[in-house]
Amino acid sequence: MEELHDVQLTEIKPLLTGQNRSNLQDVNCKEHDVETAHGVLHVTMRGVVKGNQPTILTYHDIGLNHKSCFNTLFNFEDMQEVTQHFSVLHVDAPGQQDNAPISPTGYQYPTMEELAEMLPPVLSKLQVKSVIGIGVGAGAYVLTKLAMDKPSLVEGLILINIDLCAKGWVDWAASKLSSWTSSLVDNIMGHHFTSEELLENKEIIQTLRLHISQDIPQENLALFFSSYENRIDLDIDRPIPGLTGSDIVTLRCPVLLVVGDMSPAVDAVVDCNSRLDPTMTTLLKMADCGGLPQVVQPGRLAEAIKYFVQGMGYMPSAGMTRLVRSRSRASSASSM
């Protein structure tokens, strides 16, 4: 599979869409509540499993659900060119879906590792044999853990704003102080955006703030946020020539890492890239983009996903001229 490293992409930013247009993701969809060892998981299946084709499996970030996280991307024309070849399974973390009931007092929310453990029984029930995962933030962490635990299930990963590491003591102390002085919504906004972006992208910021504060039960949101804040380090290491596969923990599938160049997750994503097999990993840093690349630059991201999936052998060559030109320019510049 060809590699694509540090390509700078720019795009005019659309609004946080969904309210003003028909939602194509509601067509041919069926919702399921699947019982697992760690509780019930709400998922939405679009289409049917197609032969030996993998299913696209999405997992959203904190403060979002599958609709607010992915509808803008999946409604985009270039992304529909991808999804016509696959069924799509959207996962909502427990208690984060639309109209979710408030979690009862004393409810023990799953850890991030347990959230990953909830996925195999869901895939089995829906007769999904393998997946290409698309995860953002906390969702990217969950899908990475799934790929570590069940490598035969995961054929490829598209990880946006991934952070493999547990919070260090300094981060933990800062988080504790922030939790005492800031609201839950403010803390989650700080997870998604830098202070500069919070001041500049006021329309998107206001839309997302209202969604976080009004559309998801705050009790449920606090539980998911706490679970992510208490995540463990995934301890993935770059393979070393000469060592056998069992000697090192790493991802065995192709990986596309995505981050906006103004995102608070830049350092974490670059660190993740340094831990993965360079022959199977692509790092895409999106220019003029902050913490929500799937919302503000859906066209560029969809084009990168098409190229990635084509590299896995699942799509014919089509409609990739802009990305190929960007990649060619980057290659030419690096050879000068």
TrEMBL record:
Belongs to the NDRG family. SUPFAM superfamilies: alpha/beta-Hydrolases. Pfam families: Ndr. InterPro entries: AB_hydrolase_fold (IPR029058), NDRG (IPR004142). This is Uncharacterized protein. It comes from Poecilia mexicana.
